[in-house]
Amino acid sequence: MKKKVDILFVCGAGLGSSFAAQMAAEDVLNAKGVQAKLDHVDISTAASMKPDIIITAQNFKTQFEKFHIDETQTKIVYLKNIVSKAEIEEKLVPVLIEKGAI
């Protein structure tokens, strides 16, 4: 049985780019038949949450490295182009397989 995953989309304010990334990822998730709970938040809120996967822009990597996120529990996917369905699929699918969602 496939596991439902909790995916958090993160940007500076938790509004614009994280929501755009969420919409692009929804198409990829639907095409793969993945069941997921999706939400979008700002970086400081994300640091206190424990989702299965965090999806964020590459430029936030240094900020995430300052937080103590247990990457054995929460995988972080960094995107160069947050609305690129091809990049989302390329980077997210291996994580979804690892998490048992595919």
Automatic annotation (TrEMBL):
UniProt-recorded name of the protein: PTS sugar transporter subunit IIB
Signal sequence region: 1-20
Family matches, as SUPFAM superfamilies: PTS system IIB component-like
Keyword Cytoplasm found: no
Keyword Signal attributed: yes
GO biological process: phosphoenolpyruvate-dependent sugar phosphotransferase system
Keywords: Signal, Sugar transport, Transferase, Transport
GO molecular function annotations of the record: protein-N(PI)-phosphohistidine-sugar phosphotransferase activity
TM region positions: none
Domain of life of the organism encoding this protein: Bacteria
Domain PTS EIIB type-2 span(s) in chain numbering: 5-100
UniProt-listed Pfam families: PTS_IIB (PF02302)
PROSITE patterns linked to this entry: PTS_EIIB_TYPE_2
